[in-house]
Amino acid sequence: MNSNYKGMRSGFATVTTLFFMWGFITVSVDPLIAALKSIFELSYAEAMLAQFAFFMAYFVVSLPAAALIARLGNSKSIIFALGVMIAGCLIVPAATHFDTFELVLVALFVIASGITILQVVANPLAAALGPPERSHFRLTFSQTFNSLGTFLAPYLIAGILLSGGIFDLPKGTPVTPELRLESFAKIDQAFLLIAGALVLLAIFIFVLRRLLDVAKPVDEGQRPSVGPALKSPWALFGGAAIFLYVGAEVAIGSAMTNFLHEPDMLNVSLEEAGKMVSLYWGGAMVGRLIGSGLLFVVKDRAPWLLAAFATGASLLCLAVTQMHGETAAYLALSIGLFNSIMFPVIFTSTLERSSASPAATSGLLCLAIVGGAVLPYVYGLIADKSGLHTAYFLPAVAYVLIVVFAVAATRAKIYQHGTASAAAGH
Q: Mutual orientation of helices 233-261 and 358-367 as an angle, nearest 10°?
């Protein structure tokens, strides 16, 4: 192996720790939504504003993040991003102190802004730290650790947020101010613990900062712009696929706690239901482990693998719309397995086929993650009007459209500039 690539291994391992952390924090919003819905007595659409605030940061911050990284470099940008995330976590206790849902949304936007900067700098490193022909494999392998974070977060965070306080009350029992304060204290505890972990991670990155500066910062020497990508049909096509995938995945995960809690589903406590959401995200982890191996072997046929996985996810969603009880619950949780390889394959397939530069295409794809803000809110509107089962038609359609993208990708021209410069991840 080239000695330069050998020297990149330690840097790649360091970057992978970041994937774990932003996965953990991103999915911590799922049990938080269930907690906020009960504490503030919100509708599903109102509760989904938490995801709207979180994922809107991708749309607002992505391009400024690229400019920031070009100015600061890799390691300094990562430490700055972690600092922003810590600040967001510290806003949460202020929000609970003032009993203000809107301030919680501000905190989530700030946290997600830091995560956006982190992703814009970290994923190019994961894609670039090694042979270019293995970028599909490396990005999917790194996201396996992202999935480890998403697997652990619901179980650990739900055990804090959805226990005690108002969640120990029998249904129909009046909520006292004291119990609301106890539930708010649980939210504070969770985000202060996350802030502490981020401080330790920032120290870790600072110590190993030289390993992260072996690759050039994203967009170094360029003015960050998505303009050229807007002229590329494949960049737009890939952006739409990312929008749909992230929106579908986030919508399902966000409502899963309440879905499993329903009397016609598992009829378990919110705490137990929240912990079971780990199975949804754990399926993505297992799928990425398997998918990493499959993509290593069939790297030239990655879109066909994407088509198969998206078809499976759509069929499961349709089945859930028609079923109840344990069968529907475990089918819904199984969708995570089929979500596993979608993001990295859509991303790298788009980079390969876009006529625009990797920097411009990556910027557009990063903006498209705003689907995680839009589709969950629509999902909530459908759930409020017709129920959570009917809402599964929305992700079912999204996955069908991703199949269309994948099949089209098998016939499209591949440009040689594409695979090593991914600028976002989920």
A: 30
